[in-house]
Specification:
Elements (H helix, E strand, L loop, with lengths): L31 H7 L17 E5 L16 E5 H7 L25 E4 L2 E4 L2 H10 L4 H35 L6 H28 L4 H4 L2
Antiparallel strand pairs: 1-2, 3-4
The structure holds zinc ion.
Zinc ion binds next to strand 2 and helix 2.
Length: 218
């Protein structure tokens, strides 16, 4: 098993409970490292991971322009890609049960409102519908970035699976007693290189599939 490529694009079935308590800091920007860790290096709204080095920002759930006193309040801050943060901007809709508002990953089970069908976001509630309109999840740019990323992850994953198989064989070979000394040295060097290749890909995939990393065993 484990042949499906790791993907960050699956909304959570339960609300996010914050694990960290950073600060207090006087500038919102100072929370960025904690937020990245808190939200597994993925945008809380569209789930895009920051692995490609794209620009990620501190997002104010309740906008700074209207809720100045919450501008450095950790519970009001999210980790978001620049696209989602920019599109949301100063927009604000007071959350109401069953109403149209911007989904809040710490208050809502995101999967009740938004769903990924392959790489397209499908709204499942009024709040999901409004959020999809605000964030324009499926516009060409966003969809294109996701397609490229999914392709890259699939290729890295295929390679990793292949390398792990190779490693098993190599370890078995090294374990044989009748190896010539020169031969053993060569195989051990190959193993060292293979381990570095594996570690690099595991690190990339772990970061790219966010909170799902352990499920994918990377
Ligand atoms: Zn986003």
């Amino acid at each position: 098993m484990g042949s499906a490529s790791p993907s960050p694009f699956r909304y959570a079935r339960s609300r996010h409970v914050r694990r960290l308590r950073p600060g207090p800091f006087s500038k919102p920007r100072d929370y960025i490292d904690a937020l990245a860790e808190e939200f597994y290096h993925c945008c809380v709204y569209c789930l895009l991971p920051d692995v490609g080095g794209g620009s990620f920002e501190v997002e104010h759930y309740r906008p700074e322009s209207q809720f100045e006193d919450l501008s450095t309040e950790y519970s009001n801050l999210f980790y978001s890609c620049r696209g989602c943060n920019g599109r949301k901007g100063k927009k604000w809709f007071e959350p109401k049960q069953g109403g149209a508002y911007i989904v809040n990953p710490c208050q809502d089970a995101m999967a009740d409102h938004l769903w990924y069908e392959r790489l397209r976001v499908v709204p499942k509630s009024k709040a999901g519908q409004l959020s999809s309109e605000v964030f324009r999840f499926n516009d060409d740019d966003s969809a294109g970035v996701r397609e490229d990323l999914a392709l890259m992850l699939a290729e890295v994953w295929t390679r990793l699976v292949d390398f792990r198989k190779k490693r098993k064989k190599l370890v078995k070979k090294i374990g044989q007693h009748n190896l010539a000394e020169g031969e053993r040295g060569k195989l051990e060097a190959a193993l060292q290189k293979l381990d570095a290749d594996i570690a690099r890909r595991e690190k990339l995939l772990r970061r790219a599939c966010g909170r799902h990393a352990t499920e994918y065993k990377v």
